[in-house]
Amino acid sequence: MPMLVSPTAVQARPTPVDVVFLDDDAVVTRAGRLLAHRAERYEVTLDAAPEAEVSVGRRVVLSIGGDTPRRVPARVVSLSDTRLVVEVRGSARTDKRRFPRLVGAIGLRWRHLQDEGEDAWHEPDPLMNFSVVGFSFGSGAEDTQEGALLGLDFQVAGGQERFSAVARVVRVAAREPADVHGDETHEVSVEMIEAPLEAREAIADLTLKIQRAMTDTER
């Protein structure tokens, strides 16, 4: 089999990437690292192989982190164990978000990692923005700050299981007056840096359900 990346290809540093596998029946996510890319091809090593067989040509979205986060729509060229090669389909557009955010019900509570006890938990309104990599929810002005590490405990709408994760606060901003809910005067955006695959898959499933409902409404 010929080399996927030639010696003259640009070798990327191991950059974190979330691979979202798309089809008509499910959305499956896997975390991994971007190893290299050349022209329209990207080579990724996954932290864990998808449980189901992935066929050549399957649609995926690479949500690439690093200094310049971006989303890359692509199709599978090959998958061997945890080594994935994809090819860009259409024009890849840069997006500050690593995956589209939707609004849904997430039964979430959070605390600063250094704080312990039931009094340390904050429980925002469950109607919030979410994606497979993070959440955006209401808080008080002094509750947290950018860069803080949070412990999350959450349940996705329609599911019974609760998940634990570690997240980093990437943004705290004042809400518009019309968006203030009780003492939730600010919007906190967090990115999960440690989360079980099952949690990301549950969020991806909710994403697909909402997208399908939106599509059915527009028909």
Q: Topology of this structure?
A:
Blueprint lengths: L10 E12 L4 E12 L2 E6 L12 E6 L5 E11 L2 E6 L13 E11 L14 E5 L2 E6 L9 E8 L5 E13 L11 E9 L2 H22 L1
Antiparallel strand pairs: 1-2, 1-4, 2-3, 3-6, 4-5, 5-6, 7-8, 7-10, 8-9, 9-12, 10-11, 11-12
Folded structure, characterized:
- The protein is 10% helix and 48% strand.
- The chain has one helix spanning 197-218, and strands spanning 11-22, 27-38, 41-46, 59-64, 70-80, 83-88, 102-112, 127-131, 134-139, 149-156, 162-174, 186-194.
- The strands form 2 sheets. The chain has a 6-stranded antiparallel β-barrel. Strands 7-8-9-12-11-10 form a 6-stranded antiparallel β-barrel.
- It is elongated and about 50 Å long.
Distance between the termini: 46 Å
Radius of gyration: 19 Å
Shape from CA axes? Answer: elongated
Could you report the average pLDDT, rounded to the nearest whole number? Answer: 80
Give the total of beta strands. 12
Describe the main β-sheet briefly. 6 strands, antiparallel, barrel
Report the total helices: 1
Sheet with the most strands: spatial strand order: 1-2-3-6-5-4
How much of the sequence lies in strands comes to: over 45%
The residue fraction in helices comes out at: 10-25%
The helix-strand sequence is: EEEEEEEEEEEEH
Low-pLDDT sequence parts: 5-12, 91-98
Helix/strand class: mainly beta
